[in-house]
Amino acid sequence: MHFKDRVVIVTGAGSGIGRCIARTYAACGAKVVVADRDGIAGRQTRDLIAETGGDATFVLTDVGQPAEVIALVARTEVCSSYQQADKY
Question: What CATH number corresponds to the domain at position 36?
Fold first, then answer.
């Protein structure tokens, strides 16, 4: 699938399946918002994507906290960098 210039938020992207999904979307051309409650792991995923030429940003988010999920989508960084999040 082609996701060129699509914006994808991947929660739990700091490790495991979430990291794999984030990297796969990036490899397919998506702009990836890496969301995780572990700042170190999330930044590592962002950096791995960047090292392979992908476009990613990291937002510290605990999806167990509804307010943080709302903030993730509304974050100025995400909106100003990517304009919107596409839905899949």
Answer: 3.40.50.720
